[in-house]
Structures are given as structure tokens and as C-alpha cells.
Amino acid sequence: MEFNADLHIHGLYSRATSSNMKIRTLAKESGKKGIDLLASGDCLHSKWLAEVKEAEKIDEGTFEMEGTRFILSTEVQAAKRVHHLLFFPSLSSVEGFKEEVGKYSKSLEADGRPYLSMNGEELAELAKDVGALIGPAHAFTPWTGMYAHYASLKECYGSRAGDVKFLELGLSADSDYGDLIRELQDITFLTNSDAHSPYAIRLAREFNTIRAKDTTFDELMMAIKREKGRCFVRNVGLPPQEGKYNETACPRCFEHYTLEEALSRRWKCSCLATIKKGVRDRAKELSDDGIVKRPDHRPEYIHIIPLGEIINQVMGISSPYSKKGLGVWEKLITEFGNEVEVLLEADIKNIRGLVGDEVAEGVHAFRSGQVVIVPGGGGEYGKVLLPSQAKNLKKRVKKKRFDGQMTLTDEFKQS
Question: How far apart are the C-alpha atoms of 188 and 192, rounded to whole Å?
């Protein structure tokens, strides 16, 4: 069987997270997005773990509510502010891990994503002891990504680097970025939403399609390790240029710079803020030769745009939570089953007959690669514009054509 999984979200007890991030709401909304399996997130937080336990227990590490399966996971911040993602096989594994890290943290009950005064090697050692799997969260992201502070898995995880079987790319990168780096050739890439809201524009904006025998923790772990025929068959995510850290830019005024410009300015923007190196430039730095080397096991990467973004653009709606836009979205989901079906499979003629020409043409423009990307950077999301909106851009704004499922061919060589 094949199923869709979003393996990085946060509950309502994490900072800057919607109060609607509740297990029951997540279960309901996941079905609309076409997601079968969610990682719980925040499982070290007692109140959030209590919510997870309200779901039906399928096995020691798998739970279900309203047709959506959940596995136990958390994101933690450790040495150098680097974020790590962990998956646990059971409640006892979570409790064992929590008992050990309690002495290294004052925030286990204060924040769903706690700070632990431990380094990557210590974390990986403890993860191994409790049967958990660990890897870098949004690995390329400035400030909190592994590659923002370390040059390699070995440098971050020390003697336990070999235990790291996955790496989360993050919203500002795709497989081409990861496959520039030789040490990642045998690593499974994850594409997850890191959602702080349960609704359509955030939840499962990135996800994975997995081949396994069941939607359980054990089957997921075999897929990550590519054992017994289990594997990832598709990574689905935003065009990396839409991520808010894609290009090198100023985090105050959002002026964009080439790497050469930033170096010549000694990383000082005209507004006197410090320029932040973008994911694209960092990936190039870590590459031996600037050539994307795609291993045979690497699945296809499909770039996707949230259906809500398309609807709002063609209807001229500014708020992502507009009742008018959500009404159109709900109508499409009711008819076609879930968002993935609408974006990738549904007949354009049927979409047109249901909600009109504008939305149908917007979906068609996305599928045929006619959208234009204004890259993000410095903490500001990029913009993906449909042809009608792109015409109104000022000439000074840098634009990039989104060429269907092959991206970055103007930046990285392929092999």
C-alpha cells in the first residue's frame, strides 16, 4: 500500500501555535488534505501527550482518531540552537527519554518544543538507548538548521552520525539541494509541513508518500531505512524559492543579495542589519562540485502549491482564512475527496463546472508550470504568482519561472 504522511507538526502547547492545534481537529483536517499518517509532535509535553492518548491505541507506537493515524514524535532544540526531530516506538520509550533529558531542560512543560542542554551526539546516544530515531529538522534553515552551524552529520552527531537515517529538508530546500552534498547520498529525505495551524494552507503543505504494509511506527521506520521493500516513493513540497530562507537576504528590510555581494559588504546590509545567508547559497557551499548527484533510491520530488493559495489569488482574497475562499476550498474537497486529488488528479473540466473558470485556470496554470516565483529570503516567504498576478509585478522585482517538476536547472547541474 501507499499512503501520505506529514511527519513534523506542533501541538497547541508550542510557542506561536494556533489554539486549534488539537488532536481531534488535526485528525479531521488531515483527511481533507489527503494525509493518512501524522507525527504527533511535542510528545514530551505532558498535556499534549494526554491529548494523543485520547486516540485509539493501535499498537505500542501508533494511534488512530477519525481515520487518521498518529505516531509519537517531537522536535527539540539542542546545542548551538540546532533543531532535531525524533520518532518514538512507544509511550514507554517517550517516558524513558523524558526522564533522562529532564535534568538537561527547564522547558519540558513550558514549551512543546523544549530546549535541551545537550549536543547532537548525546541526543543520538539517548535516542538509540530508547529505540527512537533521530535526524536534523529543517536541516538547511539559518539559525536553527544543522547545516547553519555544522559542516557535516559527523560534526553534529559525532560517533553516532551513522545512526542518522533521515534528514528533513525544510521549506526552503528540495531534493536537489540535498543531493548536492555527498554525505547525504544514503540518507532518506523527509518533506514535512512543520505546521503551527491545522488548516489547509499550513497542514501538509509538504508531505511524503510512503510504500509499506501499514500506517504504523514499525512500517514507517522500515521505510525510512528502506528495508524489506518499504520506502519513500514521493517527496511533495513547496518550490524551494517560496521558502522564507531560500535566498541570502536581510532579515530587517528583506533586501536580497548574491553571496558575492554579501561577502563584499562584510554581511552588512544598507540598513545596517546583518545579512543572513540563504539555503541556496549554503547548499552550494557544502557541495564538492555544484553537481546534483541523485542516488537510485531517491524518489521523485513533486513541487506543489497549497490549493488555498491558488483560490485566494484568482479570487483576489488577501486573508488565508477568508470564509469566501474557504467555502470554495470546502466545495472542491467535498466533491473530489481531498486536496491532493484536486491539485494533481481531478479533471480541469470538472473543477470548472463546480467552481468556475478562474479557479480551474489557476489549477491548470500550476499543473502546467506557468506560475512565477518571487524568491523568499531573510525570513520573508517567497510568492508564487499565477500568470495574471505576475503581470502586475514591478520590473525591479526579481522573478523566476517555475518550470514544472524540474527546478533549479538554472542553478545546479544534474547528473
Answer: 13
What does the pLDDT look like over 153-209, one tens digit per residue?
Answer: 999 999 999 999 999 999 999 999 999 999 999 999 999 999 999 987 899 999 999
| 57, 98 contact by CB (below 8 A) | no
The pTM assigned to this predicted structure is 0.92
In 41-82, DSSP assigns E strands to 56-59, 62-65, 68-77
Locate 325 and state its grid cell: 475562499
> Helix, strand, or coil here: 227?
coil
Q: Is 295 left (phi over 0), alpha (psi -120 to 50) or beta?
A: beta
Could you give the CA distance from residue 97 to residue 101 in angstroms, rounded to a whole number? 6
Instruction: Put residue 266 in one of left, alpha, beta given phi > 0 → left and psi -120 to 50 → alpha.
Output: left
> DSSP characters for 262-331?
HHHTTTB-TTSSBPB--HHHHHHHH-SSSEE---TTPPEEEE---HHHHHHHHHT---TT-HHHHHHHHH
Q: From CA 38, how far away is CA 68, in angstroms rounded?
A: 7
Mean pLDDT of the chain: 92
pLDDT above 80: residue 405: no
Whether the pLDDT of residue 354 is over 80: the answer is yes
- Spatial distance between the Cα atoms of 383 and 381, rounded to a whole number of angstroms: 7
Q: Give domain limits for the chain.
A: 2-240, 306-367
99, 261, 272, 408 from 138: Cα distances, Å: 26, 26, 28, 19
Whole-angstrom distance between the N-terminal and C-terminal Cα of the chain? 31
Residues 6+ apart with CB under 8 A from 40: 9, 11, 23, 48, 49, 52, 63, 70, 71, 72, 73, 74
Check: CB of residue 31 under 8 Å from CB of residue 62. no
Q: Which strand (E) or helix (H) includes residue 364?
A: helix 357-367
Query: Quick one: cell of 363?
Result: 489549477
Chain centre to alpha carbon of residue 394: 30
CATH topology of domain 2-240: TIM Barrel (3.20.20)
What is the SS3 assignment for 74? Answer: strand
Q: Give the C-alpha separation, 367 to 121, whole Å.
A: 43
pLDDT value of position 18: 95
